[in-house]
Design brief:
Elements (H helix, E strand, L loop, with lengths): L1 H32 L1 H4 L1 H4 L22 E8 L2 E8 L2 H10 L5 H8 L6 E5 L9 H12 L3 E5 L13 H19 L4 E6 L1 H15 L6 E5 L5 H6 L12 H14 L6 H4 L7 E6 L7 H13 L4 E6 L16 H12 L8
Parallel strand pairs: 3-4, 3-5, 5-6, 6-7, 7-8
Antiparallel strand pairs: 1-2, 2-4
The structure holds 2-acetamido-2-deoxy-beta-D-glucopyranose.
């Protein structure tokens, strides 16, 4: 009997070992031959929560008054949320009716309240709880918050590629600019969204249409460093640098996935601030510092704010910093010294 169990345990352990080895060896080979189809490992857009109502902001814990709308992009329908600044929430609550789309559009063209366009990170969608925490904080600070799902995320149609998700961010940005008149716009990226934001704002800078500021929360410098510093990547430690480049990075680059923020940031013309926690285990602080250094070398207007390990913010929770409201207000005063009425 005992001998039987030992044999069984040996068999199970052998199976697990073979499976792990298969993944560790097979996955890079799959990326090498099929980069187009293995990109999803980076985007993780298939991760979503069941029973999400994308049209009901309150059911997703958004505190302010907001609207859900859909724009058309190159990949199809793009799901967008617009959350009002706190003071306007109070006015509408006092008025006792929900604003119409025309009301929302009109409020975007009111330069007392700046607009933050939020580009989220990979996996899940714009309804994910720590993102909603950030929208609530920004709305509380009297910003309009515009957030959206890239193609293939949330209720947005299509399949993500780097080019595609940047194009979606551009579609939403252009829509904001069309509505907002002279209202100032700040672009905010988190995690993968910092890669999207750097490309978006680089393109806008080249076209002399840059927003008034760029916030990069928990960013990274490029695809290779993001991938090789990810905790999961330790199982691929059998590959040397040449193999990583040849088997993983170059094939992904060849299908347009490169996220070269360290190159793109050099052409960004607006002020930038990086927010990064020391205990970020997904995109370690050194990646944010490398991006900061790349901007400094190109003589960009950039600041960096680091949050110490004992605060425990990690990759997702800089939104919980009691200092964050003041950091944002200070950055906004800096990027638009003339208009500080809304704070
Ligand atoms: C914004 O408001 C100004 C002043 O009322 C108006 O002239 C302008 O056309 C409006 N812009 C948009 C995009 O609605």
């Amino acid at each position: 009997m005992l001998g039987y169990f030992i044999t069984l345990i040996h068999a199970v352990l052998l199976c697990i070992t073979i499976l792990v080895l298969a993944i560790v060896v097979f996955l890079p080979i799959l990326v090498f031959f099929l980069p187009q189809y293995t990109q999803f490992i980076f985007f993780l857009n298939f991760r979503r929560l069941p029973n999400t109502d994308y049209n009901d902001l309150a059911s997703n814990d958004v505190k302010g008054i907001g609207r859900s709308l859909h724009l058309r992009g190159g990949g199809g329908k793009i799901g967008v949320w617009h959350v009002l600044p706190h003071k306007l929430n109070l006015e509408w609550r006092a008025e006792g009716r929900h604003p119409t789309d025309a009301d929302f559009d009109r409020m975007m063209n009111d330069s007392d309240y700046k607009i933050i366009l939020y580009a989220h990170g990979n996996s899940f969608d714009r309804t994910f709880y720590h993102r909603v925490e950030m929208y609530n904080l920004l709305s509380e600070r009297n910003f309009h918050v515009i957030c959206f799902d890239y193609r293939g995320y949330g209720d947005s149609e299509g399949t993500p590629t780097e080019k595609g998700i940047v194009a979606d961010a551009r579609t939403v940005y252009d829509w904001v600019r069309e509505k907002c008149g002279k209202t100032q716009v700040i672009v905010w990226g988190h995690s993968m969204g910092t890669g999207v934001s750097c490309k978006l704002v680089q393109d806008l800078s080249i076209e002399h249409k840059a927003p008034c500021g760029l916030v990069l929360e928990s960013p990274f410098n490029n695809l290779k460093d993001a991938v090789t510093n990810h905790p999961i990547f330790t199982v691929f430690c059998w590959m040397n640098d040449f193999m990583v480049d040849t088997i993983i990075i170059r094939p992904l680059n060849s299908v347009g996935l490169s996220m070269q923020s360290d190159k793109r940031i050099a052409k960004i013309s607006c002020p930038i601030i990086i927010l990064h926690a020391e205990d970020d285990k997904i995109l370690p602080l050194k990646l944010g510092r490398a991006l900061f250094e790349a901007a400094r070398r190109a003589d960009r207007d950039i600041k960096m704010r680091e949050f110490s390990t004992d605060l425990g913010f990690g990759h997702k929770f800089i939104c919980r910093s009691p200092e964050l409201p003041e950091i944002i207000d200070e950055f906004v005063r800096y990027v638009s010294p003339s208009s500080s009425s809304s704070s």
